[in-house]
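[[Encoded backbone]]
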Amino acid sequence: MTLIELAVAIAVLGMMAGLTALAFPTRREATERTVAERIADERRRAMRTGVERTVLIADSLDARVLTLLPDGRVLGARDSAVDAMTGRPPHAAR
């Protein structure tokens, strides 16, 4: 195998790996989904029990504390990426 053939084979494998990586959800999307599910679970628990819940949402960049009230509101949502009335991220499907 010549050097040019080797370079072409490596380039083709690199392109295939790049296209394959695009098919998988990013870690950030998975984390956002997990955070949204966690907030929704705690919100339901607060509404069901009638007791406010406090949740710490931490990632590599910052940490936020959200208080979920029994009436369904989310306090601390102004500083985070969740809707104060629903507890969902603004771009989440309804």
